[in-house]
């Protein structure tokens, strides 16, 4: 599950509990509800920070829940359901009218990796946690919107190759060097503090949220198209 807390202009979205934060229907629905609430309560100068309790940021889709269906066909249907259900989470973050920061204090794997990098900025630990696309190792193909996501979010072809075709478990220093995360820090506390500082600095700019979201969607046109996000043009009252 997750919780949403408003602290001044900052929304703090927390993946609660000490489990792996596997993205099953319950957690996906909780995330969508929290993001919808943040969007409804947003004002000029809002920002969202996502954090997770425990060792994991998120270990991806809940494969155990899929396999508990009791048959191969049932497991495949549940897996497909999660892939489709998670798509609106990525869309909601892309369409959120405020800057977003992910504090990656633990492992972010597969869909959990996508969740982290669906934020505008991500910071992570040096000493614990990796970014990892597990699909090539466990024998799963990658959904179309994941592919568009990596194509537009990670500019270097060599980084995409290593993550998607080698199953590279990328630690904080390398992720920072390759420009995948904004920065890497020594401890969980430093990651959280850095994410709050960044969120506060972004919130102080007091950008128009709708304009911000439209520019973000325009930055990732292929992903926005696959997610069914329409774009519009309008002028800010500041002009």
Question: Could you describe the 3D structure shown?
Answer:
- One of its GO terms (cellular component) is peroxisome.
- Pathway: Lipid metabolism; fatty acid beta-oxidation.
- Belongs to the enoyl-CoA hydratase/isomerase family.
- GO terms for molecular function: delta(3)-delta(2)-enoyl-CoA isomerase activity.
- This is Delta(3)-Delta(2)-enoyl-CoA isomerase.
- The protein has 239 residues and is an alpha/beta fold.
- It has a single domain, classed as Alpha-Beta Complex (2-enoyl-CoA Hydratase, Chain A, domain 1), CATH 3.90.226.10.
- The protein is built from eleven helices and nine strands.
- The strands form two sheets. A six-stranded mixed β-sheet has the order 1-2-3-5-7-9, sandwiched between helices. It has a three-stranded parallel β-sheet with strand order 4-6-8.
- Helix 1 packs parallel to helix 3 and helix 6 packs antiparallel against helix 11.
Keywords:
single chain, 239 residues, alpha/beta, 2-enoyl-CoA Hydratase, Chain A, domain 1, 3-stranded parallel sheet, 48% helix
What is this structure's SSE topology?
Elements: E1 2-7, E2 10-15, H1 25-41, E3 47-52, E4 56-58, H2 63-67, H3 72-94, E5 100-104, E6 107-109, H4 111-117, E7 121-125, E8 131-132, H5 135-138, H6 144-153, H7 157-165, H8 172-177, E9 183-185, H9 188-203, H10 209-219, H11 221-227
Parallel strand pairs: 2-3, 3-5, 4-6, 5-7, 6-8, 7-9
Antiparallel strand pairs: 1-2
Helix pairs in contact: 1-3, 6-11
